Amino acid sequence: MGEAMELTVGDRVVRISHPDKVYFPERGFTKYDVVRYYLAVGDGIVRALRDRPTTLERYPDGVGGESFFQKRAPHNLPDWIPTGRIAFPSGRYADELCPREVAAVVWAANLGCLTFHPWPVRRDDTEHPDELRIDLDPQPGTSYADAVRAALELRGVLEGLGLVGWPKTSGGRGLHVFVPILPRWTFVQVRRAAIAVARELERRMPGSVTTKWWKEERGEKVFVDYNQTARDRTIASAYSVRPRPHAPVSAPLLWEEVPTAVPEDFDLASMPDRYADVGDVHAGMEEKPCGLDAALELADRDEREHGLGDLPYPPEHPKMKGEPKRVQPSRARKKAAPNEPGD
Known about the structure:
three-stranded antiparallel β-sheet, five-stranded mixed β-sheet, 9 helices, alpha+beta, globular
C-alpha cells in the first residue's frame, strides 16, 4: 500500500493513511477514491450533515471486511470537529461528531467511514427534529419501480398536508423522502405525524403500500418504515457511499427525475460528474421548513374516527405509552389458540 499522504482541505490538513487500500474490489476503488469522491461532493454532503450528531458506518478493510457502527466520537477526534450530545431511548448519552466542513468528512473517510448516518436534529437542540424522514422500503416480490410509484403518490399526500418532500435514492432498492420541518415537535410527535402520512398513503394505494410492522403481514408491497422517525433511528445521508460491491451512493433527486432515474445511475464514479454538472439539487431544502399541524390533525382524526392509534416501536426501544403489544401476530395467534386434545 502507498505511504500516508496529507491533503489540504480548506483550512485543514488531513492525513490519509494507506490511500491505495482497496475498498471496493469489484470496481477497484481505493480509500483515496472514496476521499476524492467526498471532496467532489463536499458542499452537498456537508449540507446534509452540518451540525447533526452523526453515526459512522465504518469498513476499515473495505466492503469485504468487518464493519461496525460508531456512535460515540472517536477518541482521536480533532478539536476542530465539534460534537453533539444525544440521548438514547435507554437514557444513556453519547457525544457524536457533528461535521461542519468537508475536512471533517474526509477525516472520517480516512477511518473507513463509507456511510454517514446523521440524526434528524441539530447539535444545539437534540430533542426537536428538524426533518421528517420517510423510508419507502420495497419488500420481497417488489422492486425499485414500485417504490417510485409510491413516492410519486406520496408527494401528493405531503402537499395536501402542507409539506414539501425532497426525494433521494437510498443507494439500495428503495427511496427516501425528507421533509424539512420547524424544530417545534418532539420525536414522539414527529413519529406520530409520519404514521399519519404513511396511513394516508396506504389508503390511497392499498394494494401496493403497507404500514404493517411485522414482516409476515406485509406481503409484496412497499413498506413505509415509520419507525425511522423513532429516537436513535437514522437514515443514510444524501451523498453517502453505500457498502455494496458496485459502490452506489445515495443520490438526491429532483421530483421530475424520480420517474426515470434508477439507483444504478449513481455511484462513486458517476456522481462527481453529475455534481459538477447540476450541483446539489437539494441545496434549497432548508430554506422553507414546514409545520406538522395538518399531519398531526390527521393523526388525531384517524384515532378519533377510525380507532387507529399508535403502532409498534422497534424491539430495542423502551415500551411507550399507548403502544400496542409487540407480539408477532403468528405467535399471538398460537398463544391464544386452545390446546389440542391430548396435550
